[in-house]
Amino acid sequence: MMHRRHREDVLVRRPVQVETIPSGHPVELEAGQLAQITQALGGSFTLLVEGQLMRLKGSDADAIGKQPPEAIVVPEDLHIDDLEPLVWQQLRTCYDPEIPVNIVDLGLVYRLEFEPLAEQDKVRAVVDMTLTAPGCGMGESIANEVCDKILALPRVGEITVNLVFDPPWDRSRMSEEALLALGL
């Protein structure tokens, strides 16, 4: 992936669905449109197109001439007790498209728990998370990314992501690394 402060001009090579930032509304980019990558973290891309920020899923990276992100390689026979660190690892690959810090270091994940499912060796992951601002239109998109990435892990049969706003998020929840990355 590219360095987060480097911007790169790209040409859209095929029609592709993106989400506008911060509203989260879907938009289709046409082949031949010019874009600038402003952030490439966690497997997705933040693009600047005609003055509007947009989020491109990593699975559509070929539309801008990039490689899709490599999935975390996990053995299928993963023991259930080894699942939690992998879930946290996956959560650290989820980013707010406007902020170059993952949602864990931003302090947006309030709770991670597992509930057994009837299916042997499968669990439901339950994540309580918040947003940096309650009106953020990208909340559903970030929650969907969390779901997709955690459901891709073996032993996770279901996931529930709860967007919560109590307690409200503030900068005190950020890790030292996040504060340094943002120059705070």
TrEMBL record:
Source organism, top-level taxon: Bacteria
SUPFAM superfamilies listed in its UniProt record: Fe-S cluster assembly (FSCA) domain-like (SSF117916)
Cited InterPro entries: Fe-S_Maturation_MIP18, FeS_assembly_SufT_put, FSCA_dom_sf, MIP18-like
Transmembrane domains' residue ranges: none
Domain MIP18 family-like: 87-161
PANTHER family recorded: FE-S PROTEIN MATURATION AUXILIARY FACTOR YITW
Protein name: Putative FeS assembly SUF system protein SufT
Species this chain originates from: Melaminivora alkalimesophila
Lineage: Bacteria, Pseudomonadati, Pseudomonadota, Betaproteobacteria, Burkholderiales
